[in-house]
Amino acid sequence: MAPDSTSEVDVLIIGAGPAGMMTALWMSRLGIKTRIVDKRTDKVFSGQADGFQARTLEILDSFGIGERVWKESNHMIEVSFWNPDSNGAIKRYQRAPNNIGGLSRFTESVLHQGRMEAFFLDAIAASYPHPADPSGSPLKVERMVLPTSLDVDEAAAEDEDAYPVTVTLRHLTEEEATPTQKLSNLSDGLFRSNLADDDVGSMLAQSKGRVDVREETVRAKYVVGCDGAHSWTRKALGPKYEMEGEMTDFVWGVMDIVPITDFPDVRTRCMIHSASNGSLMIIPRENKLVRLYIQLTEVSAGGGRVDRSKITHEMIFKAAQKIISPYKLDYHYCDWWTAYQIGQRVGNHFTKCDRVFLAGDAVHTHSPKAGQGMNVSMSDAYNLGWKIGLVAKKIMPRKILSTYELERKQIANELIEFDHKFSRLFSGRPQKDILDETGVSMDDFSKAFNMSHMFTSGLGVNYSPSALVSKPPEKALLLESDKEVQNEGTPAAQSKLSAATNCKPGMRFPSYQVMEQCDARPWTLHHKMPSDGRFRLWVFGGDISQAAARERVNALGARLEKGILARAPRIELGAAANPFAGTARFRLDRPPSVVDVMLVHTAPRHEVELLRDLHEVYHPFDAKLGWDYDKVFADGESYNEGHGRAYEGYGVDAEKGALVVVRPDGYVGLVTELGEENWGEVETWFEGVLRMA
Ligand code: FAD
Fold it and tell me: Which residues form a coiled coil (predicted)?
C-alpha cells in the first residue's frame, strides 16, 4: 500500500449526484475549502432523474444556470388522464393544466440528470477566482475515490476551529470503479436501479491486496454524505442511523424511447389506467424522447424483494404495449431502461453532532414517478450548503446548523406521505363501479393529482419556526389535508404578518416585476437575489415622493447604518456574484455586509433622485467602485413591459409599508411592519442568526 498522507479540509462531500453537486456549488460560491469525491468514473450520461420542479428552476436560476435548463428542457404544460370506458378500452377522460399558473415564472420541465450535472460543473467553475479561497484552484469532482472509514471526535464537535471528522479515502483504478454494466448497455439497465445491490463491497474487494493501492486521511470540519440510497456515510455513522418505512409490492419499469405510435397524446404528460393490465405514465422529454413508467403487474414481489434477473427490457415494453392497446406502440431507439420496486423510507437522523450531515437519497427514498427525488435531494443540499458555509466562515453561530434536520426531515416526511398516497392511487386497479371497494376511483385520482401541485412544484415548502423563521404556531396546508404542525412558534411575529400577506415566514419569497430606479429596467425581484450567501432586508417604503414616507425610510437607513450594518459580518464574494472579484484594479474596496438592504417604493419613479433623496444604505459607496445603483426599485408602469404590481403581489399596503427579511436560500425569515417601533424586532432577529460585532 502506498504511504498514507493526511490533509485538512473545511468540507468533504461524499457523492457527486444532484445533492453533492448542489452542496459543492454553494461551497464554491462561498469560497469554502472543499473536496468532493465520488466512487464512479463519470457523471450520469442518460436516464435516471429528469423532472425539474418550478422551485428547483428558481434555485438553479439564483446560481445563473436556471435559464440553461429552461432552454434545453421540455416544458410540461398539460396533463391528460386516460381511463377504461364501459367496454374496458382506454379513453381520454380529462385534460388539465400540469401547473398552477402565476406562482412562478417557471413550470415543471424535463431534462436528463447528466445534462444538469454538466451545468453544475460550469457553475462551480464560474465561482472562481474567489477572494476567500486563495488556493485559486476551482473545486473539481475527484472520481474513483471511495471512503473506507469515518470517525467523529464528539468531544471536539463544539470547538469551531476543530477538524473533528476523520475520513480515510481509497483511490481506485478505473476497472475497480466501473460498475459491472454501463448505462448505455441495453442488455442490463438495472445497475442503477434500487433492485441492484450496493457495489461498495465488491469495489473494496477488488482493490484489496493491490500493492500500489493508495489511501489518504482527511480531517474535515464538516462531512456531507450525498452518496445516494445505499449511503455508505449513513451506515458508517452506526446502527442508530436507520431508514424507516416500507417496501411495497408494486414493481415498475422505466424506458426512455423515441416512440413510433398512433396514440394521440404521446407529446403530453399522460396518466393511463388500463382496465386490467396496470398503469402507464408518459413523460414527453427533450430531443423527441419520451419516458414511459410502466407498471409490471406480472412481476410479483411476494412481500419481499423482486428478483432482478426476471426483468428484461423486452418484458417491460410488452407490458407498455398491453396497457396502451388498442393503440400501437413501437420504437426504433431506446436510450435507457431500468426497473424498480417502490419503497418509501426516511432516515431517522439527518446529522451526527451537526458535523456529519446526510442529504438526498441518503435519507429519503420513494417512487420516482412524481419526479421529486432529484428535486428534493437538491433542495436538501440547497438548505444545508449556506448554513455550513456561513458557520465555517464564522458569520453564523453553530446552533443554526440544527435547523437543517428540523426543516428537511419535515419535507422528507411530507414527501413520503405524498408518495404513499400518489403511488397507491396510480398503481391501483381502476374501480369498476361505485360498489367496487377495492378499486381506485378515477375521480379521486385526478383530484389528488390536481390538488398536489403546490407540493410537487416545490413551491409549497413551509419551514417550521426556528431562529431562522419567525412565526407563530400554525396549521400547514399539506396536500389536500389540513395537518397540524407540531411547533411552538416564535413569540416575535404574532401580529405583524399582515404587513405583507403574501410573504409567509418559512416559505419562499415570491417574485414580482419592479423597475430599477436608476435606469427604468424591469426586473423580477428574484434576479436581484443571487445565491451568494447574503441575507436580504426588503424595505417596502411606500410613496417616498411624500416627505413623511421618505423620512421614515431614511430614519430606518440611519438606524441600520449604526446598528445592523455596523455590527453584521462582511462577506467576500467570488467571481459569480462580483465579476470584478478577480481583477485587483476593480476589486471592491471592502467586502459588502452579509445583510443586503433593498428598497421597493411606489413613488412615481421620476420624482425620486436616488443619491439626493435617499440615505446611503440604499446606495452604498465603495472607494473603488463608487455608488451601488442596484438597490432601489419602483413598483410602477415600465416603458415596455407593463406594471408588475409588486405591492399587490407581496400583499403590502403602500400606506403602511413593510419589512421582510429573506434568508440566503430565498425563504422568508421575518415579516413585520415598517414603523419605528418594529425596528428592534429586525435587530433581534439578526442577533439570533448572525455573529454580530
Ligand atoms: P444519487 O443521484 O444517487 O448520487 C449519489 C452519488 O454518490 C453517485 O454519484 C454515486 O456514484 C456516489 N456514491 C455512492 N456511494 C458512494 C460511496 N460510497 N463513495 C463515494 N461516492 C459514492 N428523480 C426524479 O426527480 N425524477 C425521475 O424521473 C427519477 N427517476 C429515477 C429513476 C431511477 C431508476 C432511479 C434509481 C432514481 C430516479 N430518480 C428520479 C431519483 C433521483 O435519481 C434521485 O432521487 C437523485 O439522483 C438523488 O440524488 P442524490 O444526489 O441524493 O443521490
Answer: none
Specify the residue with its C-alpha closest to ligand 1, atom 35: 48
What pTM was estimated for this model as a whole? 0.93
Coil, strand or helix at 356: strand
Q: Note if 285 is an active site residue.
A: yes
Q: What are phi and psi of 666, to 5 degrees?
A: 85, 5
Tell me: the pLDDT tens digits for 450-481? 668 888 899 999 999 999 999 986 644 333 33
Q: Which of 35, 38, 150, 384 to mutate to test the pocket of ligand 1 (most atoms within 8 A of CB)?
A: 38
**So what's the pLDDT on residue 480?**
38
Rounded CA-CA distance 9/23 in Å is 15
* Residues 6 or more apart in contact with residue 527 via CB below 8 angstroms: 61, 511
Under DSSP, is residue 218 helix (H, G, I), strand (E, B) or coil? strand
Atom 30 of ligand 1, nearest CA residue: 49
Tell me the CA–centroid distance for residue 265 and ligand 1, in Å.
Answer: 30
666's CB contacts (< 8 A; 6+ apart) are 58, 59, 62, 508, 509, 526, 529, 531
The x, y and z cell numbers of residue 588, run together, are: 471592491
- pLDDT exceeding 70 applies to what percent of the chain? 89
Q: Which of 163, 241, 293, 340 is catalytic?
A: 293
Give rounded-to-5 percent helix, strand, coil for the chain: 30, 25, 45
Helices assigned H by DSSP within 432-581: 442-451, 453-456, 547-562, 564-567
pLDDT tens-digit readout, 474-519: 644 333 333 444 444 554 455 688 999 999 999 999 999 999 999 9
Q: Quick one: cell of 84?
A: 377504461
How far is ligand 1, taken at its centre, from the CA of residue 360, in Å?
Answer: 8
Residue of 285, 536, 550, 663 marked active site: 285
Distance 481 CA to ligand 1 centre (A): 30
- Quote the cell numbers at residue 316: 417491460
> Exposure string (b/e) for 468-501, b if CB count within 10 Å is 16 or more?
bbbbbebebebbeeeeebebebbebbeebbebbe
Which residues have a Cβ under 8 Å from the Cβ of 110 and sit 6 or more positions away? 50, 51, 52, 73, 74, 76, 283, 284, 285, 286, 291, 371
Asked whether the beta carbons of 191 and 180 are under 8 A apart, the reply is yes
Is position 404 annotated as part of the catalytic site?
Answer: no
- Catalytic (active site) residue 368: yes
Sequence-distant (6+) residues with CB within 8 A of 150 are 165, 166, 167, 168, 223, 233, 236, 237, 356
Catalytic residue selected from 18, 84, 259, 368 = 368
Task: Return phi, psi of residue 314, to 5°.
Answer: -65, -40
Domain boundaries, the chain: 2-74+106-244+343-421, 497-689
Alpha helices (H) along 31-97: 54-62, 66-72
Q: Domain 2-74+106-244+343-421 has what CATH class?
A: alpha beta
Residue 205 CA to ligand 1 centre (angstroms): 23
What is the number of the ligand 1 atom nearest to the C-alpha of 43?
9
Q: Which atom of ligand 1 is nearest to the CA of 147?
A: 19
